[in-house]
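Page 37, continued from 36.
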């Protein structure tokens, strides 16, 4: 049995008016909500149960087939605090974790599901093409991602040059219970404000420094992140021009 948790607590303020009345995961691309695309990819990959961590406009995410967790402090906490709301699943067995503002193919999920490392992270080796389409300066948004073989040795810092980037983290990963225990040990070393602020790549970087094995799994084409209204316009234009095919 494989479970997956979708982190959908935040408002997505960079989306502007698009998230004034609904959570970011209900943003539509080509007429389909991102959440529907995520659930379809997870189901096609054999995920047996999907949970969602809610926060902003939680009432709109009371959807059939989804187990719900809630982060009542979603306005003042970051991604890892939201993930901790689903700790029961992370402690019980291997669990996939998906950001709510991305879309991806079932094959990428399958690759993560069969990975054997304590933490497996999906990434885009061909990141530069996508970032150059989304940003005038790709380095303005890209983060460090360094590998030794397929083991991640650095992630999530501001890059000094393009050489610091061997791919880009995409917000889709998998934890084993042992890895989540290591995450909890790290969180326990932080004071309350720092624990609340902890983001996912900072957690991964801390676990790397603590010698937790984190392996990189390359994504297949047809993924994207919608973090702003301009991102949505970019992907709509890519679809119209035939340069992007969405997962079924």
């Amino acid at each position: 049995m494989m479970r997956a948790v979708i982190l959908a607590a935040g408002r997505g303020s960079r989306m502007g008016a698009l998230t004034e009345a609904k959570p970011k995961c209900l943003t539509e691309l080509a007429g389909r909500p991102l959440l529907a695309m995520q659930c379809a990819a997870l189901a096609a990959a054999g995920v047996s149960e999907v949970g969602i961590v809610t926060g902003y406009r939680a009432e709109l995410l009371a959807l059939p087939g989804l187990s719900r967790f809630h982060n009542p402090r979603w306005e003042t906490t970051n991604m890892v605090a939201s993930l901790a709301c689903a700790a029961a699943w992370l402690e019980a067995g291997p669990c996939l974790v998906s950001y709510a503002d991305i879309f991806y193919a079932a094959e990428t999920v399958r690759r993560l599901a069969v990975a054997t490392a304590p933490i497996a992270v999906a990434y885009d080796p061909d990141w530069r093409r996508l970032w150059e389409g989304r940003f005038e300066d790709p380095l303005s948004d890209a983060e460090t991602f360094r590998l030794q073989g397929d083991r991640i040795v650095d992630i999530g810092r501001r890059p000094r040059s393009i050489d610091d980037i061997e791919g880009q983290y995409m917000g889709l990963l998998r934890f084993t219970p042992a890895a989540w225990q290591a995450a909890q040990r790290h969180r326990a070393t932080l004071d309350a404000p720092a624990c609340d602020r902890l983001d996912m790549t900072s957690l991964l970087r801390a676990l790397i420094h603590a010698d937790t094995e984190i392996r990189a799994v390359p994504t297949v084409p047809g993924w994207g992140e919608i973090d702003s209204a301009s991102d949505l316009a970019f992907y709509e234009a890519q679809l119209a021009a035939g340069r992007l095919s969405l997962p079924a």
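The longest strand covers residues 168-175. Flag for discussion at group meeting. DSSP finds nine helices and 13 strands in the chain.
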